[in-house]
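Appendix B, example 12.
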Amino acid sequence: MGIETARYAVPRVAGSLLHASRLNDDVARLKYVSGAREEALRRLGINTVADLLTHIPRRYLDFSHACTIEEAPLGEVCTIVATVDRVREKHPRPRLSVVEVFLVDETGALQLAFFKQPWIARELAPGDRLAVIGKVEFAYGFKQMSSPHYEKLDERAQAGTIVPVHPVGEGVTVAWMRRIVSVALHNIAGLVDALPARLRARRGLMSAQAALRSIHFPFDFVERDRARERLAYDELLYLQLALRLRNDANLLGITGYAHESGKRVELLRSALPFTLTDEQEAAVSEILSDMADGSLIMNRLLLGDVGTGKTAVACVALASVADTGTQACVMAPTGVLAGQYAVKCGPFLDAAGISWALLTGATPAAERSRIVEAAGTGGLTVLFGTHAVLSEDVIFERLSLVVIDEQHRFGVGQRNTLRSKGPGADLLVMTATPIPRTLALSVYGDLETSIIRTRPSAGAGVTTHVLTEANRDIAYGSIREALAAGMRAYVICPLVEDSDDGEELDDIFDQADDGAQGQSHGRLHSVASELPKLKRAFPDASVAALHGRMSNADKDRVIEGFRSGEIQILVSTTVVEVGVDVPEATVMVIENGERFGLATLHQLRGRVGRGRWAGTCYIMTHAKASGKRSTAQERLEALEQTGDGFALAELDLRLRHEGEILGLRQHGGVALRFVDLDADGDLIEAAHDDAVELLRYAPSLQSVATMPVRYEVIRRYGDVFREVSGG
């Protein structure tokens, strides 16, 4: 940048930072905000001006297409703006309240009826201007609407405009929210855009200030959509930049680890009873290369379906830690899975002369004390564990590698707690849950990805069938055949007890599934109720229960009994979704399959067909009960048609948009407000490419031209840096 260019750029930067700082102003500094209203806003999560301006409308009233009462066509939904003439409350029978509101305009009268909403009689008064949206009917000489959407209009809401309806709570009315948003928009007038003008022009984006104004008070819906596009782009770009910048150890002012690969790595490789596949070798090479670069903090995702050999790859990374003379911690979501890591990795680590230990909630006190002391003094190289490793007294002398399996099962705070035990430690995330490309480019954009698609030992595989209750005998017949051949079976239930409400379940029915929705909420199967039924159905078999409410000792005892064959049928919740590896298990029956997400179903069926014997998974569902092919049924049938987890990930994304995506909720403590991960594929690609380009131009965004961008990254996503730096 030349001297003359810099001379004019510096005032622009200063102005941008000055106006951007107004977005960080406390909401209490706005006119009309004080006392009870301030408290009400804070209850809505609105603490700053930025919070307020991103508290976007949940819907809009379109008065540009409003009609008069006379023009309103019968049998159609329309918008009418009129004046309240009178309000009365009636009680046609006990416990039934009907509020009748009569509206008038210059062309006629309209009667509104609100059932069991007596407060409306106190809310509306003669003379109020009202906008109502509903279906127009005709009865008793009047045009009528039954329980329509309505909005009291103030002087700002005029016919011929689009009026926002913001989410509100107790102490805040929609009209007052509109007023305070207008005040906030006025206060940020002159906001200088953080994005370089050339970048905005290339992407055809409106300015930040125009976008904030138009998302609240659009001239038309085209303008509103352009505003959402700009706000979504900003979310994606600044998040990408934040996630990428946090891997720069120099920028964070911390010392990274330059791991070595020497004798321990060679010994561990020699101890493996198999040769790594090409994909495994590629993953090992990528991981060790990242770990060897002390100027960058590794953030790598090791993605591979069930049985693809991720554990062996992770073992090599652990050996590199031993060669470096530092420590590693492997955290798994369940004691079963943590124990399985110890069982699988332990012998290889022993062969390489690497010390290790397992720490879970079931670890005896004396053994726990020895493990904690060894970790704190550096006498322990690798610690496998569950949430137990997060305890305050678990301290590492030099923690340089954190390995987290199935990261989405941990809260952001839990992951940050572990990483804070080793500031600058490299991170390896492992998951069997495929991630769609748009998600990988956005909220997982900081994670370089290594993918293992092929199983080293293919196994016989699993076939999936979706059945209704009428065909239960097919599933039970398959269990009998498996038991007769000396095999084992799982029966998976959504609940532990019948009394559980099931609110936490992942119902995959759409509200649009007419007919199917009601059927999906039939009886939910529980472990407690199915256990005696299965004992009666299979009197010669040993049947046992497994669920998360059991003690760790009881769970371990049951799982070991199932592995040994002492238990032949395991009736369980989704606690077996990961970590239970029994090659002789060849049949799985999943009850209420419509109540689980595709990710969970895909993971569950991966528990069978893992050995030499083919597996069969039967998904029981009520979705077909109405006789109508529903959306839910199409979703379940996708499981019948493909075993490709990546294809299922893309399907789940299309069906769910940015909500629960194959079990992945949020990453880095960040939730996307404006982005639709399904519809915004092109925007996600654009933001990803632009983030890469900006960092290529100014690696730390320290140039004059990119300083406003840097400020905005820190303002929005400053917390993501603390995860790596430990503070």
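Residues 1-18, 507-521, 657-669 have pLDDT under 50 and may be disordered. The chain is about 40% helix and 20% strand.
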